[in-house]
Design goal:
- With about 240 residues, the protein is an alpha/beta fold.
- The chain is about 40% helix and about 15% strand.
- It folds into two domains: about 5-15 and about 90-235, HAD superfamily/HAD-like (Rossmann fold); about 15-90.
- Strands 5-4-1-6-7-8 form a six-stranded parallel sheet, with helices on both faces. A two-stranded antiparallel ribbon has the order 2-3.
- Strand 4 (about 110-115), helix 6 and strand 5 form a beta-alpha-beta unit.
- Helix 1 packs across helix 2 and helix 2 packs across helix 3.
- The protein is elongated.
- This is HAD family hydrolase.
- It holds the Pfam family Hydrolase.
Length: about 240
């Protein structure tokens, strides 16, 4: 049996950035009609340093303060949040080169897992909506929601995966046979804390939201475009 390959979800297995921008524009048009959308989107990106999009109601209150525009009286923030997540789920698409590499690795005998930050129901809906439900077994899909499981870069979500099939703690050799693949500094730090190597994808959206100030310091073991991910992973396993 080969090693374990742990994939991030958003902007790794899935192309999420365009879907996120479109959903944010929908929310901005509803709450702040006529606003400078480019500026508002830029401020929103920066606001994710305080709140993720899974904490949308809190994020929108801070965003309104930063834009200097009060929220409309009686605004249904919970309804907007539900609509936002539904639009993102509907718009996400797969990253075909990374998904093809994952399937090829599975055919080579490697085990696959998915570890993602976010709301459990939303992230699992993305996986099913995108046809990735068969990529990894349910017990190897871990959603770090910040409630049951701490969000990355906390490595807690990886720990159950770094055990062997009988549930015994993974040996040092087993840990060396696991690799994490993701697009952000968060993923690099998660792998470092878990003691496993990491492949970082070079994507246009990487670190626009979180951790950009750390990207020069948190060095991955390998860095590649989506087209090169299979070779990069094989070199580390």
């Amino acid at each position: 049996m080969g090693g374990l390959v742990i994939f991030d979800l958003d902007d790794t297995l899935l192309r999420t950035a365009a879907a996120t921008r479109a959903a944010r524009r929908t929310v901005l048009a509803s709450l702040f009609p006529g606003c400078d959308a480019a500026r508002a989107l830029a401020v929103w990106r920066r606001t994710t340093l305080l709140y993720s999009d899974q904490q949308l109601t809190e994020l929108l209150r801070v965003l309104a303060a930063l834009l200097g525009t009060p929220l409309p009286t009686g605004a249904d923030l919970d309804g907007l949040a539900a609509g936002y997540h539904a639009e993102v789920i509907d718009r996400v698409t797969v990253e075909p080169r990374v998904v093809a590499a994952a399937r090829r690795l599975r055919d080579d005998g490697h085990a696959l897992a998915i570890v993602s930050n976010g709301d459990d129901a939303v992230q699992r809906a993305k996986i099913e909506r995108s046809g990735l439900g068969d990529l990894a077994p349910a017990e190897r899909v871990v959603i770090c929601d910040g409630i049951r499981i701490p969000r990355k870069p906390d490595p807690e979500g990886l720990r159950p995966l770094l055990h062997d099939a009988e549930g015994r703690p993974g040996t040092e050799r087993r840990a060396a046979r696991a690799v994490l693949v993701g697009d952000r500094t968060t993923d690099v730090l998660t792998a470092r804390l878990a003691g496993i190597p990491v492949v970082r994808l070079r994507t246009r959206t990487a670190d626009l939201e979180r951790g950009s100030g750390l990207s020069r310091t948190a060095r991955p073991d390998a860095e590649c475009s989506p087209a090169g991910v299979y070779q990069a992973i094989r070199a580390l396993l």
